[in-house]
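REQUEST FORM: STRUCTURE PREDICTION
Request ID: SP-0412
Submitted by: Lab K.M.
Chain count: 1
Length (residues): 280
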Amino acid sequence: MEENRTICTYDDEIDLRECFRTLSKWKYTIIGIIVLAMLASALASKFVMEPVYEATAIVEIEPLPQMLEGLPQRSISSCEQMVTSDRVLDPVIRKLKLDESYTLRTLRKEHIKTEVLKDTNLIKITVNDKDPEQAAKMANEICTQFTDAVKADQDKQLVRLEKFVESQIAREERVMEDEVRMNMHKLTGGTVEAIMADSRILRQQDILADLERKKNSLEVIRASNLIGANVSVVSMARPHEEPVKPNIMLNTAVAGVLGLMLAVFGVFFYEYMKGEETNR
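STATUS: Completed
RESULT:
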């Protein structure tokens, strides 16, 4: 019995030689589309798209001086978050009169970028705008408002410490008065009660002396202007003449790649449709 053999043929097999012949046939068209796409992108980037300029400032966050160890130390990440907080950006908008063009949301989302430089305590603040002078002003004003906010926080903490120490001194003075009044009759003679009473009074005196030293150190801090000294602007922002956007070279290259893809797809689609019409 003869075996029935079925021979399968695939009309839709990809023939690389046919592909290359098609590309060679339409090479000038493909090149023309690529050139047109690149030219259109370059012209649009140069004359249609508005240029965007960047200005960069750098702020340094140092550890608090030893005299300020009683104040809470902000982490570098919390300081970075504070740069774009309402507390900092609201005064920037008011002072530079940006109300008509900017909102807090647009500033955060489109115009301001912060970055903690790796292995440092430096925060880079980058601002972009269509006006290079405006971008530099905004970056520098953000630095000013940020340092003022940090200083205000530390000043509030210092005031709280001063009030707390003063309240502790007043409390311990009352305790001291009570101890003296209650043990006045025991202070004479060498009895055990007299020695214990004298010891309690001396201990209370030591507590008061320690609180007085803390009060004096806070007064020294207040007089020495150390508040906010751990935050400084390392690099002020300056206007740049060259825009960062649009990137004409990048846009042109991307347009060339897209033009190539579109041209090749169009050529093969045209040849396919023409083949279908011929088969009919």
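NOTES: The chain is about 60% helix and 10% strand.
Reviewed by: T.R.
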